[in-house]
Amino acid sequence: MAESESRMNTNQIERRGAENAERRKVSDLSPRLSPFSASLCLFAKSSAQFISVSICVKVDKTRINKGFLYALDGHCQWNCQFWADKNTIRHNSPQFAETRPLLVNESRPFCCMIQTMNMKAKYTLFRRNGVYYSQDSATGQQKSLRTREEAEAQKLINARNDAYRQPVLNLHLARAYLTASDPAFVERTWQTVMDQLQARGKDSSRERYQDVFKSSAFDPLRQKRLMETTADDFLALFKDGKVSIICFLKRLHNFALNLGWLAIPIVAPYLWPKYEPKDRRGIKLDEHQTVLAAEKNAEWKLFLELLWETGAAQSDAANFKAEDIDWPTRTISYFRQKTGSLAQFTISTALEKVLQQLPTTGALFPHLSQFAANDRASRFRRRCHKAGVSGVTLHCYRYAWAERAKRVGMPERFAQAALGHNSKAIHRAYAKKAVIIAPSLEDYEKKAAALPTALAA
Questions:
Q1: What are 83's strand-pairing partners?
Q2: CA–CA distance, 357 with 304 (Å, rounded to integer)
Q3: Which of 63, 67, 141, 201 has the greatest number of CB atoms lying within 10 Å of its CB?
Q4: Crossing angle for the helix pair 373-387 and 285-294, nearest 10 degrees?
Q5: Model confidence, pTM
Q6: C-alpha distances in Å from residue 378, one per residue of 372, 373, 386, 394
Q7: Contact predicate 121/161, CB 8 Å
Q8: Opening angle at CA 363, ends 358 and 364, nearest 5
Q9: Under a CB-based contact definition with an 8 Å cutoff, are residues 373 and 338 in contact?
Q10: In this predicted structure, which of 66-75, 289-298, 381-390 has the lowest mean pLDDT?
Q11: Confidence class of residue 319 from pLDDT cuts 50, 70 and 90?
Q12: What is the pLDDT of residue 57?
């Protein structure tokens, strides 16, 4: 009996010694744990039953002093073994796949042995004819490292893998932080920005945005997430895009930035292509008369004469109504469709002759008012081509009126009121090509000398 007890004590001491040795192995191994996948073999003791479990864990963080392992993403990798009453049962029970922290250096009677396994690298190393190469695991592209030294090649391949892993990690961290404040931030695409932008403004602005954003030039950007967009995506559009596309792309970019959907500008303001406007001029009198002589449609001829006398935009003039004319005061007043500003001017003798040939009620141009602005512009361009006149559009009549007013010395505030310009800068841009010939000083001196005589008389 005494010998049996002595033998049991000896077995217990040996078993405890083996457990302590395994525990020391784990403590020595813990500083070398990496934040990648690892294989964990856990032995737990509960009364007279022993359980052996092998699970796959993901070690996100290790604390060497207190011995904590966090975020165990566990599942049964091999068959669990359970011994009870000398009967062996093999199964894959989910109870052994629980996710819970393991106390590595805890004094409880268990030990665990962890073997690290590396994640699949972006670039792999191989040798061909004594020269080391790297291979992209995703695309299979191979590239020479230009070295025959294994140590040097290993350093190069590690550097490439680290360079690839860090941006990906930064992107995931950014997504985690931004999702907490705005859950839709990481999923928002440029199509969402387009939908929001074309839902604002007047009806004419909405229609213009809808037509522009239907262009195939925006297809590479349409379904791309905002946070994944780089300057290269915009530079590609700059290279192939027209002036109008780049203009609306800048509006789209600034709209997303002002809404807070972009953390920082994708393209700095000074890097956007500069807009160089086309050279615009007013239609000359001889050109206007040539187009009128070639025009056979009576309504169109009156429409062009009205543009010459009023300088109105073609969309405003086509939608003039008889109610806009105040014959007692001999004035025409209307609100511009583009800006909503009031334009008001006196009816001249030449304009009166044109108005007397138009309807006295309703629209002054019943047929032309049904056409879209682009259709009227296209028709005028064809008429100019047949008449041998080039370089002018319907909007050139507006430039011509501003230039004529400046040439004869009409006060700027009166010209602005007639054209409906709210800004002096805009009005001056229309009239900048007016050629003003100053009278001689002698003429002014003669007028000044005759002035006292006239006053005395």
A1: 50, 88
A2: 13
A3: 67
A4: 90
A5: 0.52
A6: 10, 9, 13, 10
A7: yes
A8: 25
A9: no
A10: 66-75
A11: very high
A12: 39
